[in-house]
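Limitations
The structure tokens in this dataset are predictions for the assembled complex, not deposited experimental models. Users should treat interface geometry with appropriate caution, especially where small molecules or nucleic acid strands are included. An illustrative entry is reproduced here so readers can see what is and is not provided.
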Amino acid sequence: MPSVLEVSGLTIEFGGLRVIDDLSFTVDDGECLAIIGPSGSGKTVLFRALIGSVPYQGAIRWAPEARIGYVPQKLDIERDLPLTGADLLRAKAHVGRVPPTDVPRALQMVNLGSDVTSRPIGTLSGGQFQRLLLACAFLGRPSVLLFDEPTAGVDERGEDMLYETIHRMQVEQQLTLLLISHELSLVYRYATKVLCLGRGRAWLGAPTEVLTPRRLEELYGGPMTYHFHR
Amino acid sequence: MTADLPAVALSVAMAIAAGLVGCFAVMRRMTLASDAISHVALPGIAIALLLHVQPFVGGLVALLLGTLLIWVVESRTRMATETVIGVVFSGALAVGAMFTRGEELIEALFGGAGALPGWELALGLVGAAGVVVFVLGARHQLVLALVSPDLARSAGVRVERLSLLYLLAFSFTVALGLRYLGVLLMGSLIIIPAATAKHATRSLGSMLAVAVAVAVSSTLVGTALARALQRETGPVIITVAAGVFFLALLRRRPR
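Predicted assembly:
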């Protein structure tokens, strides 16, 4: 299976503090890589480096044909901001030079109606806003989707719906998926590979190899429990 | 302001640019910063007066230099932009006031017409058209960068460059208004119509349209009122704009 992403010797520092230290991994076409780790372990910083938002040392090589869709971490949007979901989708379509006909398709993929997109984005629920961002990411027909904390601020039912949508899209569109998550049960269910970041170390492997109680305790500094969503 | 056609055309062009630029200033939560930025024009005007150069040119140069300073601070350091703006631009106002005297100081602070040279009219109209074309053309990039700079970057937007261009458009708009509104009041014509539009609308297109309508109508009504009441134009324009803002507050926000 060809690699979509190759990261080698990646080091990221902020103000003298080394957040990521000499990290190397690859992601193959069609894989679902989950990135887990305690707060401050550099998960979001890693994503920001992957999209070229922060300076780094080392090498990040995307396959030339990779089209990246990015869904940022929970955003702090003012409630009275006069921007509707349709404004955001139009902006993304215009910037990505995507034909306007792709917008209804992207909305259909995430199961969002015009009653939601006509509302200001600050008034949407956590789940609706995440699905709107997901629709934005689908514009431009990405081959790789980067998803930072998909379910932050979303209730449990919305969480399951979101993961199911993402998983369905991954299968239907043959997407490569990179996601940051705290939901270990969902990671266990959907990820094909897990990258654990924390305490200056990194572990990479299949969920059954990496998500062991001992490793999780070492990673989070205490016993971790997780329940299965149904 | 004399009511001749070129002066009216320039003030309307200034108001359109102010309304559009203001929408993104308000959405980027730059309300207080915008007011402070306009103060940096004062030392430029003071130096221009000392050197017997057109005050507009001095104000514009100072604004552009101030803009570059903010951009460098925003993009290269971790210092809070608000802190730098608060210190540098209030300092600029003090330094400018030291070197400007009497009538000239009042005119620089609050605006005052004087003769409108042809080159200033032409530069003003072309500049305002440039600002309008930039804001309307870049509105989609500005929206993405506003919602999430990382999302914008991942879509190919060069966020730092966009931010510089926006700040330059903002500064140029302030410079356009120095003649009529002065250093102290021009920031208000950028912010008040946009703040009114933010309260009264719920989508980008309607916000831009309402902000332009409020800015242009406040400028025209304020100019006419100032003539009728024999008052300085700038303060009357801003009083009208503020009146419209408070009237809009009486209406409930659309849902």
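Some entries come with short summary sentences. For this one: The mean pLDDT of chain A is 84.
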